[in-house]
Structure formats: C-alpha cells, structure tokens
Design a protein that fits this description.
The protein has helices spanning 4-15, 18-27, 45-48, 85-92, 100-105, 120-125, 128-138, 153-162, 179-189, 203-216, 249-259, 272-282, 337-357, 392-402, 438-447, 468-471, 483-501, 509-513; strands spanning 33-38, 73-79, 107-111, 144-148, 196-200, 222-227, 236-240, 264-265, 284-288, 294-304, 310-321, 327-333, 361-371, 378-385, 405-406, 412-413, 421-429, 459-463, 473-480. The chain is α+β, with helices and mostly antiparallel strands and 523 residues long. It has three domains: 4-167, Rossmann fold, CATH 3.40.50; 195-288; 294-513, ATP-grasp fold, B domain (D-amino Acid Aminotransferase, Chain A, domain 1), CATH 3.30.470.
Length: 523
C-alpha cells in the first residue's frame, strides 16, 4: 500500500518527464507516442447528477480523436459505457489528411461496463485488470501521457499506477479552481471582482456575509451564494434582500435568514436544507450580483503548456439561463470586440498567477461585463474553471479542422485566411428527440446536409450523440464565415430535427433568447 506522501512524491517526479514527452509529440508527430484519454467527471457526484444527460458527458472529449491526424499518435479512450461504433466513425471521418481506417488502427476504445453514477477514474482504479490492460497498451511510458477532462486525487493515483505523467493541473492546486480560490487568485492578479466573502463553511456564515455586503453596498438588491465546487452554474443560488431592511443588526440577520426561504436555486432539485448541507461540506462564497442596463458573460480560455508557456486560446460570449440565469447554456466565438481586449488582459494577469503557482493545462476564466447607458464597459472576474469546459471543445474542433490561428486581436483565420465564427451549445434538447439512435440521427444529418464541409470550412459538428435516445439532448458546434451564418446553421439544425421528430413541437426558446440582447456582435 503506497502512502499518500509517497504517491505525491512519485507524481511530482512523473510530471518532470512531461515537457520532453509533450514536446516530442508536437515537434515530431510522426514518431510513435501514446495518449491515454480519461474523460472522467471527477467532481462531487451528487451535484453532478443535477446536470441532464451527464452520463454522456464522457463523450465530449471525443473531439480529441483528431489527435490521430499525427501519424505517430496512438490513442486509448476510456469510457464507463460503450460508445456506438457509428459515433466513433463520425469523428474519424472528420480527420483531414489521414484515412479513417489508418486512424482507427491506432485507436483503442476501452469500456469498463459500469453505468453507476461515479467518476470514471474511480471505476478504473477499482479494476486491477483494466489498469494492467492499459499499462500493456501504453508500452514505453517514456513516450506516453494522460489527458483528462479534469484532475483530482483520483487522476493522480491513476497516473502513478500507470507510470505516466498527467497533462493537467496538479491536484494539490485544485483550490485555485474553486469559487473561493478563484477570488483569491483574482486578488493576487490585481483585477476587479465582485464584492463578497470567500471560504465560508455554514449557512450562518453566509447570513453574516450577506449582511456585511448590504452594509458595504446599501443599494444592493441581490447577491449570489455559491457552492465552492458547483458545476456549470448548478451550484449557485440567487438571494434577494428584504425591502426594506431593518436598521438594527440582529433584526437584519433575522430578516436575511427568513429570506433564505425565497432563494432561487440554479438547480431545480436544490432545496434550502440540501443546499446548505452541501455548503457546509464543501464551503462557498457570497458575492454581489452585478446589475446594470447591459450585462454579458464573456470568458477567456487559456493554456499553460508543459514547457511553461502561457497562451491565450480564445474568447467567448456565453449564454446563461436556468432558474437563476446562471447556468451555462452555450457560447459564441469570438467575444465582442468592445470588451475583448479588456477581459483578455485581465485573464493574462490571472494566468501569470496560476503559472507561478505551478498550474498547467487548459482552463477558462469567466467574467461579467456591464454598463449603463452612456458609460464604458466595466468587468468583474467571476470564476476560474481549472479544467476543460464548455468552450474547450468548440475551439479545439475549429482549430483541428481549419488549421488556422488566432490573430493578434483575438479573431481566428483558417488556413485559407478566412475569418471564422461559431455558435456552440451542449443544450440542444427536446422531448421529441428521445428515442433517436445514433444511426437514425446520422441519417438525418447526412440527408439534410448538416455535416461540416472541409471544402467550405463551414457546417455543423455534433457531440454527445449518445445522449439523444435517453435524454433527447445533443451538443452542436455551428461554424460559419460570419456570426450570421453560424446562427443560421443552428436555426437550420433545430428546424430539421424538429421537422424529423415532431413538426408541432416548439423547442429551444430559452437558449436562443439568451442571445437576443447581443445579436451578431462580431460582425
């Protein structure tokens, strides 16, 4: 039995090998190297179950199969449940310059046949024969590394057992990706953030912080109470202050406690008792709810490479919805020019803080930007997602498929020099889509010409196809040569699916209404 201290020491030693392995895979793509992909959602499983279709979120990393365009790459993709063969073929046919059959020979799909609501990495760790099978597949550990959706102590344990480094943040640094840790990092970076308090551990602490916030900002109408490790905004609760507020502190605290009965939870099945039980378990924050005549939610995606290079990857405008208007629904690329540079500069400052702390891998920083009529945009940093997220896969797909690069002002030009735009969502959902098998869905896509075209570098990409039959949920990335074309592709996709499944059904209104306030901002 390896002690925790020995495991941590072994992990840190393995990580010293990553720069050489990673550089070799990128600089000499024809040389043999192996990449193990573990799309495990290693979060609080109780919170995770609040996300519709979450068992199929393991499919979101399937875009990484495009790494097989490197002739020397071998990939193993591990899942809890089998991935339909047609879905695998769908991704492989997207490869440019590599015959799908050649790529397929270098791909190993490994399923642990366990649909229980637990993290995939936990399932792998409890199966010694699976670990040995992976170890045998890896071959030379000096030419292999592991990629994960997120990192946790589970992924550290697996990396040590397999003897290969992990291309992701050290689990010892995960606090920086919590709501509390994010606020601490923003302060270290010297950037703006909403007023509030972090590292709270009880409902009563939240009550006192809400009171202090109201005293600090008398005009404040609403605040947000957040679980430290909430996922996709599902761990947030919107608090509305009593009006009028009592003047004496004891009376104010009593009024705030009573107002907890009207908390608006982002997750529909959250209740006050369960929410604050989880709040006491994982901790959380209280912060002001930023309000103005115009409020938008952009994000910046960054990467710190194993070589220590800090890169700004992309910017997005995000669509938020749900009960409290704080649940991630989708995104547009790129973010509005009016505030793109402002959020990019601030994200870079935060990235420097994280790099100095030893973070590596992909991550994203969420902001709120706001203004009243006649005023300049202001911004507040909201949180760090120290992992891959909803904006990771769309940009990864765009980059792999069009082979271009980000320009100095944050636009993206394909290899042919054309500016590219996209709209992406994980939440294209309708009850009428339930029952669609992958074969049925792909037949619809092909017959209506919805697929991505390499010749025009435009079209629609799909993910989470396996979630359709049970949940009627699908992920889409609509790539166009203008923001309008990306929107039109999404509208066409919705219309086709509705026509093929239920012509009378009206769906998706919430998702598109999130963008009604800022149509085609990038044009």
């Amino acid at each position: 039995m390896v002690s925790l201290a020995d495991e941590i020491a072994a992990f840190k030693l393995l990580q010293t090998k990553l720069p050489k392995i990673w550089a070799g895979a990128h600089e000499r793509p024809r040389e043999s190297h192996s990449c193990l992909i573990i799309p495990s959602l290693s979060f609080d499983q109780e919170e995770l179950r609040k996300v519709t279709g979450v068992p199929f979120y393991e499919e979101r990393l399937m875009f990484l199969l495009m790494r097989l365009r490197r002739p020397g790459a071998r990939l193993m993709y591990v899942t809890s449940q089998p991935v339909d063969e047609d879905i695998i073929d769908y991704y492989l046919q997207l490869l440019v310059g590599v015959p799908p059959m050649h790529a397929k020979r270098r791909l190993t799909m490994l399923c642990v046949q366990d649909a229980s609501p637990r993290a995939l990495t936990e399932k792998v760790l409890e199966r010694p024969r699976v670990i040995e099978r992976i170890r045998q597949w890896i071959g030379d550990p000096e030419r292999a590394y592991m990629t994960c959706f997120t990192t946790s102590p589970l992924e550290r344990t697996l990396a040590v057992k397999l003897g290969i480094p992990l291309n992701g943040a050290d689990p010892d640094l995960l606090h920086l990706g919590t709501k509390s840790g994010s606020r601490e990092a923003f302060r270290m970076a010297g950037i703006e953030l909403p007023a509030g308090t972090e590292n709270l551990q009880s409902a009563e602490a939240a009550v006192e912080s809400l009171d202090e916030l109201k005293v600090e900002i008398p005009a404040l109408r609403r605040a947000v109470v957040k679980l430290n490790a909430g996922f996709s905004g599902e761990g947030n609760a919107l608090f509305t202050y009593p009006n009028p507020m009592p003047g004496e502190r004891t009376a104010r605290l009593a009024a705030i406690r009573k107002a907890f009965d009207t908390l608006k939870f982002a997750a529909e099945d959250h209740g006050k008792a369960g929410f604050f039980e989880k709040f006491a378990e994982m901790g959380g924050v209280v912060e002001e709810f930023l309000e103005a005549e115009e409020v938008r939610s952009p994000s910046v995606q960054l990467r710190i490479t194993p070589l220590g290079e800090l890169q700004i990857i992309s910017t997005h405008d995000q669509a938020l919805g749900g009960n409290s208007g704080q649940v991630y629904l989708g995104c547009r690329f790129p973010a509005n020019r009016d505030y793109r540079q402002m959020i990019t500069e601030r994200a870079h400052y935060v990235g420097e803080v994280l790099r100095d702390r030893g973070v590596l891998g992909r991550f994203a920083i969420d902001f709120l930007v706001y203004r009243n009529a006649g005023e300049e945009w202001q911004c507040g940093a909201i949180e760090i997602n120290l992992r891959m997220g909803g904006t990771t896969f769309p940009f990864t797909a765009l980059d792999f498929l069009t082979g271009g690069a980000i320009t100095g002002d944050g636009d993206y030009r394909s290899r042919t020099g054309v500016l590219k735009y996209y709209f992406a969502t994980d939440a294209l959902v309708s009850p009428s889509y339930r029952g669609l098998l992958p074969q049925d869905f792909l037949e619809i896509v092909i017959s209506h010409g919805l697929h991505f075209s390499p010749s025009t570098e435009t079209g629609v990409l799909f993910h989470m196809i396996g979630a359709l039959s049970q949940f009627g949920k699908l992920g889409v990335i609509c790539i166009g040569n203008s923001a309008q074309e990306a929107d039109d592709l999404y509208q066409k996709t919705r219309d086709v699916l509705d026509m093929e499944t239920d012509p009378t059904h009206k769906s998706h209104g919430e998702l598109m209404s999130m963008f009604d306030d800022f149509p085609h901002l990038m044009d």
